Amino acid sequence: MSANDSQLSERLQTGFLGVIAFALLLFLLVQARFMLTCLAFSIIIFSLTSDAISAFARLRVPNWLATTLALIAIAIALLWAATTVVAQVNEVVSTSILYADRAQATILSLSQRWGPRVQESILTFLGGIDFAGWIRSAASQASNLISGSVLVLTFVGFMFAERIWFPVKVERLTGDPARATEVLRIIHSIMRRVNRYLVVKAAISAVTAALIWVIFRSAGLELSGAVATLSFILNFIPTIGSIIATVIAIAVVLAQTGDPTTTLAIGSACTAVHFLIGNIFDPMLLGQTLRLSSFGIVLALAFWGAVWGIAGTFLAVPIMVAVMIVCAHIRWLRPLAVMLSHEGLPEEEPPRPRLRG
């Protein structure tokens, strides 16, 4: 066998083993989705609270006291958020069941103006949709938030317990203090970028939810709190989250009023809110924080949504940030980091333009 044939055989064998490894990894990701998504959210919460604990430590607060207070605050916040979301989803579900017939009757009355063919097509489409099944599925997924919150809290507690020894473990794992420092710097860079994104995104989502609440309250509609809460949550899903929130708002208005004019007016107002915030304030405030490729974000949403469902769409951006930063520090993976970045510069801080004198 010649040298070229031997190299080709090795490359084919390596590629075949890579395909098998990827398939096995994908299988494990799907099978252990609940535990892995809880672990991912735990890492994010731990990252957000670590900076606060470090700030308390600089104020000479004992580490055990700061950690205990952080765990208590996390437990209260998680349980409150989970119960709030479950209550709002259950309210939407119960109200949707009451107004489902009215919404279908309104749609059918509107379709009469478009001719019998259009009306028949709409009837066929509505008949093929299992609204009750979708509603039950949403309610069952929301009920899993309580058990997921307990598991997340458990993970976060153990992470805090291992927090002090983590740098020592990294140094002993790498066997080189300089290499350990570089690994810790990469981890801190990921945490800093993700924390900044989540804080800014939470502020933008809160403003969006407040405006949606004002619109619904001004129109005297029910479920203003539920729709605002869903808008806040869905706004964390890039690109498609605001679209889903707008569709939900329009559906709720149509189901309650049955008036196309009112639905059009309120739907236009909600669309304007999501459009202005999503296309002006989001890029302005998050542009230098993420610096991710828009097409890469869409691919990440599609992939992690298919693997982990709804939770994967929320985790797609933080995971993409982590992958881009890690790949930027590995020579043979840097081309992937360049493709994932917005301007082809995956480093955290953009280079400042030099002034020409």
TrEMBL record:
Q: Where is the signal peptide?
A: none
Q: Does the keyword Cell membrane apply?
A: no
Pfam families given in the database record: AI-2E_transport
Per UniProt, what is the membrane topology? Multi-pass membrane protein
Membrane-spanning ranges: 12-30, 37-57, 63-87, 145-166, 198-216, 236-255, 262-281, 301-330
Q: Does the keyword Endoplasmic reticulum apply?
A: no
Sorted keywords for this record are: Membrane, Transmembrane, Transmembrane helix
Tell me the compartments it is located in. Membrane
Q: Which family does it belong to?
A: Belongs to the autoinducer-2 exporter (AI-2E) (TC 2.A.86) family.
Entry protein name: AI-2E family transporter
